[in-house]
């Protein structure tokens, strides 16, 4: 499985 | 958006509002660490610079604006409007011992070596330890007003709920952000001692006071 991150949180 | 993230955000918002109202209604910031509040203002400012570069949702944007606005309002109340009530002698934590190492770590350990990304990383690391001046102040005076403990509880609960949110997102959204998770664990662990006192004392109607 490919994991990613993004800054979509507070 | 999942239930842990939403309740985490609301808990965070509740903490910020509780603190603002406590200072406003009592016309006093006694027992509150101005240094922690300055650190939180720096945290929000450095993290939410992406307000200018990317749009995520109306919810995201409005919460960021509210958090930043409230953080600066709190700092204003402590250092300007109710300055006379600020207990600077007990707020003696040396914040440079937090900001300098955290800044160095953000430059060394980040997702991407770019200006905004390093500031984002800095804010994540700084947030994890920003409450230390406040906890230090309480340990120094040996007590805290009950309303201040409600503030701290909501603030600690927020990151604990975010940990559950990250577990959720790991399984259901393939989301994995090591930097946020490690810092979030550190942040939550720092509150554990306080959580214990809050549950065993404050929730049973007693004032939070530490043995001398």
| Proportion of strand residues of chain A | under 5%
Largest β sheet strand count, sense and barrel closure of chain B = 2 strands, antiparallel
Number of strands of chain A: 0
Multimeric organization: heterodimer
Q: Rough shape of chain B?
A: globular
Q: What integer is the average pLDDT of chain A?
A: 94
Q: Please report the total strand number of chain B as a whole number.
A: 2
State the secondary-structure class of chain B. Answer: mainly alpha
Low-confidence stretches of chain A: none
**Which percent range fits the helix content of chain A?**
under 10%
Whole-number mean pLDDT of chain B: 97
Percent helix of chain B, as a range, is: over 70%
- Identify the most extensive interface between protein chains: A-B, 10 and 20 residues
- Shape estimate of chain A: rod-shaped
Number of helices of chain A: 0
Name the helix and strand elements of chain B from N-terminus to C-terminus, one letter apiece.
Answer: HHHHHHEHHE
> How many structurally independent domains of chain B?
1
Radius of gyration of chain A: 9 Å
Protein described:
The complex is a heterodimer of chains A (10) and B (212). By secondary structure, chain A is mostly loops. Helix content of chain A is 0%, strand content 0%. Chain A has no helix or strand. Chain B has a two-stranded antiparallel sheet. Chain B has eight helices and two strands. In chain B, helix 2 (34-47) packs antiparallel against helix 5 (115-129). Chain B is globular. Chain B has 212 residues and is an all-alpha fold. Helices cover 71% and strands 2% of the residues of chain B. Chain B has one domain. The A-B interface holds A 1-10 and B 5, 9, 12, 50, 56, 60, 63-64, 67, 111, 120, 162, 165, 170, 174-178, 180.
């Amino acid at each position: 499985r490919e994991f990613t991150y993004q800054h979509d949180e507070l | 958006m999942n239930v842990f993230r939403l309740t985490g955000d609301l808990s965070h918002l509740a903490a910020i509002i509780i603190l603002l109202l406590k200072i406003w209604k009592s016309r006093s910031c006694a027992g509150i660490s101005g240094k922690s509040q300055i650190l939180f203002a720096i945290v929000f400012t450095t993290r939410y610079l992406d307000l200018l570069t990317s749009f995520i949702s109306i919810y995201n944007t409005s919460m960021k604006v509210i958090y930043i606005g409230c953080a600066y309002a709190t700092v204003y109340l402590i250092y300007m409007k109710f300055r006379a009530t600020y207990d600077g002698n007990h707020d003696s934590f040396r914040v440079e011992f937090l900001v300098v190492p955290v800044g160095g770590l953000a430059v060394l350990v980040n997702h991407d070596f770019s200006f905004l990304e390093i500031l984002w990383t800095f804010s994540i690391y700084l947030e994890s330890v920003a409450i230390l001046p406040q906890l230090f102040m309480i340990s120094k005076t040996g007590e805290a007003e009950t309303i201040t403990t409600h503030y701290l509880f909501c603030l600690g609960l927020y990151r604990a709920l975010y940990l559950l949110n990250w577990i959720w997102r790991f399984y259901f959204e393939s989301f994995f952000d090591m930097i946020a998770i490690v810092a979030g664990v550190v942040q939550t662990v720092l509150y554990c001692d306080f959580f214990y006192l809050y549950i065993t004392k404050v929730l049973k109607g007693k004032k939070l006071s530490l043995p001398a």
